[in-house]
Amino acid sequence: MKFLIADTYYPAFLKSVYADDPKLAMRPYASQWRTLMDQCFGTADYYSENLNKLGHEATDVIANCRPLQTQWAKEHNLPLKYTFTYRPYHRFRVPWIQKSWLYPVLRAQIQEFQPDVIHFHDPARVDPSFLREIRPEVRLITGQIASPVPARADFSQFDLMLTSFPHFVARFVEQGLASRYFQLGFEPKLLSRLTEHKPGYSVVFVGGLSGSHAGRTQLLEQIAHSQPLSLWGYGLESMGANSPLRSRHRGQAWALDMYSILSSAKIALNHHIDVAENYANNMRLYEATGVGTLLLTDQKENLSDIFVPGQEVVAYSSPEECVELIQYYLTHEDERLAIAQAGQQRTLAEHTYQHRMQEYLDIIADYL
Fold first, then answer.
1. Residues 176-213: pLDDT tens digits?
2. Strands across the sheet containing 160-163
3. What CATH number did the domain enclosing 268 receive?
4. Is the Cα dihedral 254, 257, 260, 265 positive or negative?
5. For residue 350, which phi and psi values (nearest 5 degrees)?
6. Smallest Cα–Cα separation from 4: which of 132, 196, 147, 142?
7. Residues 140 and 230 reside in one and the same domain
8. DSSP per-residue string spanning 18-41
9. pTM of the full predicted structure?
């Protein structure tokens, strides 16, 4: 079968990549695409590459990357009727439809590639009318979400909604949507991109701080009062002037920079977004263990289905316990290294994107 994976990247990340190489936007589509994939942002080309390994034909599209997509249009003699007008980006407020070049280019790419299945990584911002338009040309339309669902999101045109939130599956089904549980994963080829070095940080956290992360902020502030925490991520402006996180903040880190930080730490701290409720699901579970760093994560009822707590990862149930565990594993190196190694072995054995793509194929077989 043929698969088209439609993704969107953080605008700030795209801006940083093109700012680092001002000539990138003038290069051919294939060159821009390869440069972006080699950044290893999000799931990069992990879905398509592993689907190809499993005997199918797949490709990725970064639908919201203006230089990339307009270059594709230029190379395929696709006239764009409207000029692009920049508008500030506000999470969950600015839909794709405001970018007048986005749908025409994506529509043409679908016609060019002729996929059997199209998969959207950012389904909440896909215009249902666009899905109705492409439906006659594809066999299956799937989406994937593990974040707060915007009030105006319309998933009615998706044939299947995948989520790593077990509780979302039941809620989607109650709404009349077909939904299946689908975990995230790790891409082993990342390991060849990381430089071998000794840990340079004691405890690191990489992630966002916002209204959706109230519990996370409280935890990190308590840890920062007494532990050697280094912090990267967006949302620092939401912190109070006296927050201890301000002095621990090192800026933002994406893609390979993020993986380098995780791999250079003794302990990688994880805390799930509030909407995850009591379920372990996020990418940090696999990113931290995948690079061989001890993962210290919040206790969730399904964590033992993914890793063995105490043997492959370490879990805490309160800020106080988290502090105690940090202190313990910073001073018990052999135990820390043993758990980190076991966690990496589990991830590479069961939680890679090749495993996930085989699971994806097994799931969609029921809906084709």
1. 999 999 999 999 999 999 986 667 899 999 998 876 67
2. 57-62, 2-7, 117-120, 140-144, 160-163, 179-181
3. 3.40.50.2000
4. negative
5. -135, -15
6. 142
7. no
8. HHH-TTGGGS-HHHHHHHHHTTT-
9. 0.92
